[in-house]
Amino acid sequence: MQKELVILDEDKVWAKARIATLDAEIQALGPEFYDVFNQSSETWHDNAPFDALRDRQSVLDAERQQLRGVLRSSLPTLPKQRRGEVGIGSSVTLENGKKYFIAGDWTPFAGQIHDGSVIISCQAPLAQQLRGKRVGETVQAGRIVTLA
Questions:
Q1: Taking 50 as the threshold, does the pLDDT of residue 1 lie above it?
Q2: How confident is the model at residue 107, as a pLDDT?
Q3: Which residues contact 131 (CB under 8 A, 6 or more apart)?
Q4: Which residues contact 135 (CB under 8 A, 6 or more apart)?
Q5: CA-based nearest residue to 98, from 117, 80, 119
Q6: Percent of the chain whose pLDDT exceeds 90
């Protein structure tokens, strides 16, 4: 059995939108398949355009299946966390001025900066150090100054 993943609602929305986009892209390949399938080729096994298109479809479908698996494995809601403690969905500012936003187990935005905070997965070593801590507590990266 797969581990249940904790995923923020905005990440679920992004994944569902990406799946819809992938579905549309795969559907759009249909006419291209018809065209390359009907191209003349001296031998059946030597239809490079068909093979390239089939490979493109496989890549799109693999991403779609991976995203569906992530959504299937995700918990319906975030687990409750204690008030005033760092957890999934928290924004943390350290004394050195660096800001971090702790996302769930899966996020397509890891490493990106949003609203001045670097988005990190809750599985990242820094996030694991921060989780459960309160303002004023110290971790290896520094002392926690603010928590939102």
A1: no
A2: 94
A3: 85, 86, 87, 88, 102, 122
A4: 84, 144, 145, 146, 147
A5: 117
A6: 59
